Amino acid sequence: MIPVLSYAQLTSDPKAFSEALGTACRETGFFLLADHPVPEDLVAGVFAHADTFFSLPSDLKQPLSISNNPHNRGWAQMGTESLDDTSVQTDRKEAFNVGYDLSPEDPRVLAGEPFRGVNVWPDLPGFRDTLLAYYRSVHGLGVRLHDAIAMDLRLPADYFVQHFTEPMATLRILSYPEATGADGEIGAGAHTDYGSLTLLMTDGEPGLQVRPRGGDWTDVPHVPGAFVVNIGDCLMRWSNDTYVSTPHRVLPPRRKRRSIAFFLDPNPESVIAALPGTGEPKYPEITGADYLRSRLDATYKPDPL
Ligand SMILES: O=C(O)CCC(=O)C(=O)O
Ligand SMILES: [Fe+2]
To answer: What cofactor(s) does the depicted protein rely on (predicted)?
Structure first.
């Protein structure tokens, strides 16, 4: 049900790759991506730095809190997020977000443009360089996947490139503590992602499930080294509902579980309007920034006192 695509096929047989990707994007909105160019040791490096960061005492993480950050960067402590906005239950996880990296002197940062902020960093050797190297690598991969999407939608192959030059992409490391068995506990509540594409790396500990339209919750299989890729709401809207974003959740894991999500949203000023050839527009135009802001505002609750 969740197909496994080989990224190498995008070079060897682009037509077959984009067709397989198009089918996955129309049907489940999820696929696994094997044989990709993101180095294994870079993935291992991010997991190792994530473990070091999350095991720091709270008083060292608190100054980096995402709650004080207008640009969706920093540490989301346990109990502050509820991805299922119909639930009062908060997610049992902590996370740390890295956005598109800009210097404090960048004119857009100085002007306070939405999503154009600086990253915040813990004082851990190698953390920043490793996370930024991963960010660049997965950003590149995500843009190439949009070439295949463009081909599937009968658009010029480089159609999306202009929309992802300096994207509102977020690299998010996540850590889910082992379940306590308490009633109603959830790792990440049922939700759809907000952006265009999400590329997720997991550590193999089960918990991630998807609920295809008209179906039941189903485990996402683990293929070592492969990305779990899914369509977000922004691409669903952009494709005028040709592609589907699919609800997913993370059950409280039996053992601590870690994952690395990369949410690829477009440039803030990109205008999201029904793509050519997708029929009568179902949604009004909106900028990438306005769309993402409206979705984030629904997710965060204030820090507990
Ligand atoms: O941790 C995971 O496996 C998935 C997390 C997720 O779906 C999200 O943060 O949007
Ligand atoms: Fe998600």
So the answer is: Fe(2+)
Any domain includes 258: yes
Residue 39 lies in a domain: yes
Mean pLDDT of 120-138: 98
For residue 302, being part of any structural domain is answered with: no
SS3 34: strand
Percentage of the chain exceeding pLDDT 90: 88
Residue 264, domain CATH: 2.60.120.330
Nearest Cα neighbor of 230 from 208, 254, 205, 252 is: 208
Take residue 31 and report the two structure tokens written for it: 């696929």
The pLDDT tens digits of the residues spanning 225-251 come to 999 999 999 999 999 999 999 999 999
The protein residue whose alpha carbon is closest to atom 2 in ligand 1 is 259
Query: Which structural domain, as residue segments, surrounds residue 101?
Result: 4-296
The whole-number pLDDT of residue 298 equals: 67
